[in-house]
C-alpha cells in the first residue's frame, strides 16, 4: 500500500460530522428508552404491590437480554467514536499521509471491534423480543406457537454465536484482521466479502421472522380490539429495524469493493448504529406502555369499588341466568350483577368437570368468554 508524500487534494472532504451526530443521537435515544423501560417496570411493580395487577414476575429473561443489548450497544458506540478518531469518514489517502500504515491498522482495529459489538447487540435484541413472546405465551394452552418461538430462539442464538465467532476468529492470528503490515503468507483469513454479505442477509431474514411473529402471537389474545391493535402496532414498528438492515445490506457490495475503505465505511456504519438503537426502542415498547398507569386514578382499576350497577355480557346474543353459588359454609356471593348474555355461536369450550370443589357437582360444564363492565350510580 503506497503512502502519499503530499497532502491529498480531497483531504477536506469528510463525513465525520454526520457520523458523530448520528452516533450521539443514537446514544441519547437508547438512554431515554432504557429510562422509560425500567420506569415502566417500576410502575408495574408498584401496581402489583397495591393489588391492581396480575401477580406475575415483573422482570424476566427479556430484561436480561435487554441489559446485555444496551451494554454492547454502548460498546459499539465507543468503538465507532474510536474509528471516527482514527480516520473513518475521511479518505484513506489522508489517513495514510498523516498516520502511515500503523494509523491504517489502528483504524482497522476499531472497525474490527465494531463488528464484534454490532453482531452481539443485534443478537441480544432479537433474543429479548423472543423472550417477551414466551412471556406472552406463558398462559396460552396451545404449545404450538411456543414451540415455534423456541425454534426461532435457537436459530437466532446459533446465528448470533456464529457471527460473533467469525468476527473474532475470521483471521489467524487474530491480529491479522487489522494489521496491514503482516505478510500474506503469515496469515489466514476467511472470505471477508462473503462473511459480511452473508451476515447482512441472515440479519435481514431473522429480523423479519422475529418481528412478524408478533402477528400470530398477539392476534389470538383475549383483549379488546383497541388494545390488541395498539400492541400489534407497537411490535410491528420493528419493521423499521428490518428496513435499516435491508438498507445496510444495500451498501455492502459497494463498500467491500471500494479501495477508499475509510470513506466508504461512513454511511454503512451510520446504519449499523441506527439499526440496534431502533431495535432496542422496539423491543422496549411493550414495557414502556406500562407508564400509562402513572396517570390512572386508583378507582379506575378497582373492579366493584363503588359500583352499584353492573352488566355481565358476552360478545354475542343469548341470555344467561346468574346464580349466587355458595359452597357449604361459604359467606357472601355475587352482588350487583343484574343481567347478562352468553355467546351461543358454538365457540364455547365444553368439558367434563369431576370434583370441582362444590358438593354434588360432577357434570358437563360450559365455559364462555365474559366481559364485565361497571357504571357508577
Automatic annotation (TrEMBL):
Chief localisation class: membrane
Do you know which InterPro entries this protein is assigned to? Rhodopsin_dom_fungi, SAT4-like
Task: Tell me the ranges covered by the Rhodopsin domain, including all copies.
Answer: 55-290
What cellular-component terms does GO give this entry?
A: membrane
In the UniProt record, the signal sequence range is: none
Residue ranges crossing the lipid bilayer per the database entry: 20-44, 64-84, 110-133, 145-175, 195-217, 229-251, 271-288
Where's it found, cell-wise?
Membrane
Q: Say which domain of life the source belongs to.
A: Eukaryota
Keyword tags: Membrane, Transmembrane, Transmembrane helix
The protein's topology relative to the membrane is: Multi-pass membrane protein
Family the UniProt entry places it in: Belongs to the SAT4 family.
According to UniProt, the name of this protein is Rhodopsin domain-containing protein
Q: Which organism is it from?
A: Lophiostoma macrostomum CBS 122681
Classification lineage: Eukaryota, Fungi, Dikarya, Ascomycota, Pezizomycotina
Amino acid at each position: 500500500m503506497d503512502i502519499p508524500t503530499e497532502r491529498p487534494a480531497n483531504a477536506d472532504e469528510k463525513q465525520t460530522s454526520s457520523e458523530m451526530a448520528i452516533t450521539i443521537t443514537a446514544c441519547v435515544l437508547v438512554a431515554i428508552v432504557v429510562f422509560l423501560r425500567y420506569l415502566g417496570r417500576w410502575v408495574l411493580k408498584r401496581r402489583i404491590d397495591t393489588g391492581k395487577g396480575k401477580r406475575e414476575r415483573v422482570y424476566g429473561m427479556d430484561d436480561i437480554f435487554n441489559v446485555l443489548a444496551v451494554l454492547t450497544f454502548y460498546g459499539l458506540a465507543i468503538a465507532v467514536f474510536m474509528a471516527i478518531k482514527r480516520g473513518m469518514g475521511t479518505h484513506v489517502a489522508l489517513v495514510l499521509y498523516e498516520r502511515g500504515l500503523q494509523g491504517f491498522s489502528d483504524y482497522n482495529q476499531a472497525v474490527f471491534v465494531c463488528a464484534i459489538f454490532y453482531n452481539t447487540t443485534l443478537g441480544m435484541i432479537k433474543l429479548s423480543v423472543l423472550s417477551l413472546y414466551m412471556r406472552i405465551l406463558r398462559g396460552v394452552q396451545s404449545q404450538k406457537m411456543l414451540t415455534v418461538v423456541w425454534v426461532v430462539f435457537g436459530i437466532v442464538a446459533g446465528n448470533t454465536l456464529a457471527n460473533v465467532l467469525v468476527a473474532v476468529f475470521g483471521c489467524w492470528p487474530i491480529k491479522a484482521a487489522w494489521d496491514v503490515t503482516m505478510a500474506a503468507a503469515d496469515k489466514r483469513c476467511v472470505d471477508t466479502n462473503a462473511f459480511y454479505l452473508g451476515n447482512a442477509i441472515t440479519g435481514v431474514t431473522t429480523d423479519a421472522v422475529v418481528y412478524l411473529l408478533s402477528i400470530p402471537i398477539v392476534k389470538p389474545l383475549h383483549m379488546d380490539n383497541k388494545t390488541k391493535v395498539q400492541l400489534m402496532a407497537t411490535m410491528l414498528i420493528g419493521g423499521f429495524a428490518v428496513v435499516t438492515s435491508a438498507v445496510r445490506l444495500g451498501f455492502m457490495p459497494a463498500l467491500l469493493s471500494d479501495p477508499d475503505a475509510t470513506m466508504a465505511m461512513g454511511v454503512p456504519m451510520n446504519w449499523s448504529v441506527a439499526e440496534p438503537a431502533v431495535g432496542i426502542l422496539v423491543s422496549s415498547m411493550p414495557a414502556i406502555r406500562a407508564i400509562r398507569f402513572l396517570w390512572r386514578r386508583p378507582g379506575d382499576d378497582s373492579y366493584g369499588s363503588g359500583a352499584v350497577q353492573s352488566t355481565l355480557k358476552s360478545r354475542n346474543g343469548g341470555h344467561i341466568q346468574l346464580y349466587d353459588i355458595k359452597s357449604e359454609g361459604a359467606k357472601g356471593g355475587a352482588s350487583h350483577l343484574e343481567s347478562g348474555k352468553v355467546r351461543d355461536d358454538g365457540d364455547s369450550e365444553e368439558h367434563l368437570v369431576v370434583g370441582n370443589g362444590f358438593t354434588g357437582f360432577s357434570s358437563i360444564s360450559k365455559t364462555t368468554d365474559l366481559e364485565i363492565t361497571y357504571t357508577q350510580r
